[in-house]
Amino acid sequence: MERTLSMIKPDGVRNGHIGEIIARFEKAGLKIAAMRLQHLTKEEAGKFYEVHSERPFYQDLVDFISSGPIVAMALEGENAIAKNRELMGATNPAEAAEGTIRKDFAKSIDENTVHGSDAVATAKTEISFFFTDKDFV
Ligand code: ATP
Ligand code: MG
After folding, report:
1. Which of 17, 39, 52, 115 is catalytic?
2. On the CB side of 59, how many CA atoms lie within 13 Å of its CA?
3. Which atom of ligand 1 is nearest to 49's Cα?
4. What does the mean pLDDT of the chain come to?
5. pLDDT tens digits, residue range 21-69?
6. 137 pLDDT more than 90
7. Sign of the C-alpha dihedral computed for residues 81, 86, 92 and 93 taken in this order
8. What are the backbone angles phi and psi of residue 46, rounded to the nearest 5°?
9. For residues 98 and 89, is the Cβ–Cβ distance under 8 A?
10. Whose C-alpha lies nearest to ligand 1, atom 2?
């Protein structure tokens, strides 16, 4: 059993895709163990994406992630990290496989609808960014 952090980014919330995205997780056997709708401040978004602070797109990424509410979820299941990344599709929706969330809902690499942790260590850090033990049901 593994946990991963999923975030529905502001474009996914704005375009009304929360339900469809969550349905894909549940159909794939991932359980929602904790969940919250939240509008991140620029400072919080900057902290969440701190690993990318040296990248040229960092400021645009921070501005976008703080541009409206997001849905943060801890997903739980067997191979949850890899399973979520598979459901999400490639970072650039133009390269995402058919039937993936990014292929179906994302407009561009900047606004790519979902975030998912990429490893056990980042999943742990990212889950604790949003949730404490008492948020888990
Ligand atoms: P995420 O971390 O959001 O789940 P990812 O793991 O697929 O996406 P990362 O390499 O971690 O991709 O990049 C984080 C985010 O930064 C991407 O989701 C994307 O929005 C943005 N990004 C990544 N590479 C680029 C790029 N070359 N140009 C513009 N934005 C980018
Ligand atoms: Mg990433």
Report:
1. 115
2. 1
3. 14
4. 98
5. 999 999 999 999 999 999 999 999 999 999 999 999 999 999 999 999 9
6. no
7. negative
8. -65, -40
9. no
10. 115
CA of 37 to the centre of ligand 2 (A): 20
Alpha helices in the chain, H assignment, sequence order = 10-14, 18-27, 42-48, 58-65, 80-88, 101-105, 120-130
Question: How far is the centre of ligand 1, averaged over its atoms, from the C-alpha of 28 (Å)?
Answer: 23
Mean pLDDT of 1-10: 97
Strands 31-38 and 114-116: unpaired
Task: For tokens 């501005």, name the residue.
Answer: 63
> pLDDT tens, 72-122?
999 999 999 999 999 999 999 999 999 999 999 999 999 999 999 999 999
Residue with tokens 């009304």: 16
Rounded to whole angstroms, how far apart are CA atoms 108 and 67?
Answer: 16
- Cα angle 55, 61, 62 (rounded to 5 degrees) comes to 105
Nearest CA to ligand 1 atom 7: 91
